[in-house]
Amino acid sequence: MSFSGKFQLESQEGFVEFMKAVGLPDDLIEKGKDIKSVSEIQQNGDHFNVTVTTGTKVMTNKFTLGQESELETLTGGKVKAVVTKDGNKLKVTLDKVSSVTELVDADTIVNTLTLGNIIYKRVSKRVA
């Protein structure tokens, strides 16, 4: 299964607690908690281009599986990390945040972000 497509956030758990833990300001947390972000993923073999649009904020990350890439974090910082693929899951650790993006089926992506014992889970459905 290919990750390519456009996915819109359908539900999320743990947003406020997680964003506070990573240091996002309260005003941005308040603005962002009800926005249905859109993730557009282009996969070409092991090469990925991921664009996440949340309101007016656009975050784009390009990476090749197994190779070090510079990736933008949720707070806007840049870190070098290696994204790996395990079956239908993409895994990466950015600073202290572990991210697993799972292609559950052809139309559903579940992204689970973990920081210590704080978990933020996002479920997105394919719109294109």
From TrEMBL:
GO terms under cellular component: cytoplasm
SUPFAM superfamilies from the UniProt entry: Lipocalins
Protein family (similarity comment): Belongs to the calycin superfamily. Fatty-acid binding protein (FABP) family.
Coiled-coil region list: none
Alphabetical GO biological process terms: fatty acid transport
Record key words, sorted: Cytoplasm, Lipid-binding, Transport
Record remark on domains: Forms a beta-barrel structure that accommodates hydrophobic ligands in its interior.
Domain of life of the organism encoding this protein: Eukaryota
Compartments reported by the entry: Cytoplasm
InterPro entries: Calycin, Fatty_acid-bd, ILBP
Task of the protein: Binds free fatty acids and their coenzyme A derivatives, bilirubin, and some other small molecules in the cytoplasm. Involved in intracellular lipid transport.
Protein name per Swiss-Prot or TrEMBL: Fatty acid-binding protein, liver
One Gene Ontology term of the molecular function aspect: fatty acid binding
Source lineage: Eukaryota, Metazoa, Chordata, Craniata, Vertebrata
